[in-house]
């Protein structure tokens, strides 16, 4: 079974600054996918970024980037130039590669508060 | 693209009644949909996996007779909470799985989520 650990229940950052959210996972799989989702106060889950484990290059999406360390089983999310709209709960998630469907394993989440 | 809708967004019902929640993929076909439950300030808990045209797969501890799931088409899955009780009050979220395409290469699926349904049972 896979586990996903987010060790920071809450984080705070000021607008325009950079913040890094940590995530570690445990798996015996060699092929898998990692995700960061955000859940703002509206509670809509939004996909932030996706990483394939077979890719060494770290995924980036505008101000969001990851630091994927496969050997260390670490998958941190860096948010640059933080904006007030980034205030949300952030969930790290793991999905193993499968020929059929695969379920997501979520971490407990990190609440990020961006202040003016 | 990859938009998932959920209806209703909020529902209040009396104890003992049944409530149906719809999940639709608006701009793609989803062979597989998932139903989650989320308690306040907690992570998502997978309840069941719904495959079009077949029976749903329920997670351990989830009563399949209480939470009826139907996936009649590639764009619609429904969750019916039967004989609802106050302890069923929660936030229910669905997701639909579609393929992620990067540089023309289709790889394993990614889940896109609906906006959720707040169920309150009086």
Report on this model:
The complex is a heterodimer of chains A (116) and B (122). With 116 residues, chain A is mainly β. Chain A is built from no helices and twelve strands. In chain A, a hairpin with an 8-residue loop joins strand 10 and strand 11. The mean pLDDT of chain A is 94. Chain B is an all-beta fold and 122 residues long. Helices cover 0% and strands 59% of the residues of chain B. Chain B contains no helices and eleven strands. About 6% of the residues of chain B have low confidence. At the A-B interface, strand 5 and strand 6 of A face strand 4, strand 5, strand 9 and strand 10 of B.
Distance between the termini of chain B: 37 Å
Query: What fraction of residues of chain B sit in β-strands?
Result: over 45%
β-strand amount of chain A: over 45%
Largest sheet of chain A: 6 strands, mixed
From the spread of the alpha carbons, the general shape of chain B counts as: globular
Number of helices of chain A: 0
**Anisotropy-based shape of chain A:** globular
**What is the β-strand count of chain A?**
12
The sequence of SSEs of chain B as H and E is: EEEEEEEEEEE
Greatest contact between two chains? A-B, 24 and 25 residues
- Average pLDDT of chain A works out at 94
Distinct helical segment count of chain B: 0
Q: pLDDT under 50 segments of chain A (min length 5)?
A: none
Q: What's the Cα radius of gyration of chain A? A: 14 Å
